[in-house]
Amino acid sequence: MHLLYFISLVSIAALVFAGALALGIRKKDRGSEKAREMSDHIREGARTFMGQELKYLAVVVVLIAIVLVYFVGPSTAFTFAIGAFLSSLAGVIGMSTATGSNSRTSEAVKGSLGEGLRVAFSSGTVMGMSVVGFGLLGIVGLYMLFPEPGILFGFAFGASTVALFARVGGGIYTKTADIGADLVGKIEENIPEDDPRNPGVVADNVGDNVGDVAAMGADLFESYAEAIIATMAIGVLTIEATGAVLLPVFVGAAGIAASIIGYFLVGGEDNLHWALNRGTFSASALSVLFIFLGMEYLFPNIGIGVFYSVVFGLLAGIVIGLVTEYYTASEHKPTREIAEESTGGAATNIIAGLSTGMMSTLVPMLTVCAAMVLSYHFAGLYGIGIASVGMLSTLGITLATDCYGPVADNAGGIAEMAGMGEKVRKRAEALDSIGNTTAAMGKGFAIGSAALASLTLFVAYTQEVGLESVDVALTDPMIVTGLFIGALLPFVFSALTMRSVGKSASIMIDEIRRQFEEMDILSGEEKPDYSRCIQISTDSALREMVIPGALAILSPIVVGLVLGTDALAGMLAGNISTGFLLAVTMANAGGAWDNAKKYIEEGNLGGKGSEAHKASVVGDTVGDPMKDTSGPSLNVLIKLVAMTALIFIPLLI
Fold it and tell me: Angle at Cα 640 formed by Cα 78 and Cα 123, nearest 5°?
């Protein structure tokens, strides 16, 4: 109990640290009246979407809780509701801070690039610390109340439900606005990006926050909770050593302490990329040290092989992030080759982007496999679980590095919309450029962590149902059928979300065109109706997220009831394998297309307005829903399907 109290205090410290940073940001200057006006538009748009999404989500949570009470148990239903609430709360806090930091960041870069970096990164750290603080505090508190890890799966299921709606809804929202604003404003009307005369520009900036702050936070909150809880459950079933159940939460606490120290190591303006990586890499090294010392003195009965597994998980996360950077950053060969192929037109641009995305799956898949095999070799099934916890241990600063990006992006947009001058715009664009890379790395990390977390859930499922091996021989057609259904599911899910973006973007395009035709916007005589575009994105996102959400939750229950628990195990295996590969392909192809366009816009290969630039805009538009809607949503799909299978085992057996 003393250890649990200590870990609770560390969780509370994370939340206090997040609160202190948020208060510090609020004291910063918000800038000129015009900058404040545009920031307020973005903030109100984010509140509109978040408020309506939470209403839908509340209904879903109540309905699922009732089902859980009837089929699983009231304790699981209670932990489910707590998980959904804390995940939502972390998202609200993170997005509120982000939308309040954008104009403050653009104002801060007037002083120096380093000041702007500090404001934007502090905002991201509020999100990161809120996620790990609420996540770990919720797990420890509920474990004190229900000292049975199986009951805590309800907490993770609640987080999964929030993550699904945040990822799918937020992804549809952001790409509906982005595509409409780009195709009509930049291509048809030939006005700059983030021009305040574009009716879709505010909705586009809102989308950056709902997609890459709230949704990313919910996604990784889910991974964090699932990895810790599943490893606790595996520890009960497979490890006899004292403390195996509590080691995962201690690893989380060690990562929080390391992340807080890592925050203070971020800074400088000579090399912005290294300024961010210095904090992340330092936090990883400190986390390894803290975990080693903790295992030496607090968990002496647990073998050194478990520590090795933690390290393998951490290294796997770093490798996947660096590989994602290589394939998506404009400084490296793959993205520049896409830009060069753009000189031949849109078709060659798209071919190059798709091939880059497919090739980028090689190292991440081998990395996850290596982490899994080595962890199993040194610590058995428990090793696989603790490796996933190790990968996510420094989530506090890893998520901060990712959520920094949308704030920097908004700051650049406000600098343009408020007419803050060339110097401020260039500095803000420098922050935004690094933010694009960190966002791509964050998506890669989220996908990798989803794969390992899903494998941990899969192991927990096989242990719970007493399945010693998944026999995929042709003599067992039910398991093979489940395998094929699971492999199919990510493609159907992605088709639905991609189509949703296309349908919603068409409505947005029509509205933006109407405003340009019927209103005197370009001359500046009339202001665009930003609220109308915000409402279109909101309505479309909430409407279109229903079917993909139902598919993710109901499909494992139907397969389990109709084909049995062995077939459901096959489904989980197929879903994880193809879902992971498809997610990496789409996320990295989309990121590479985006940065290839930006590389051309910097003056390369003809610059803005050239044929290569026009082709790159087409590629970027194709990649938008891939990297910001379907790809990230697959993270949630592969975890939610496994979590649903675990939760409803009492119904299926």
Answer: 80
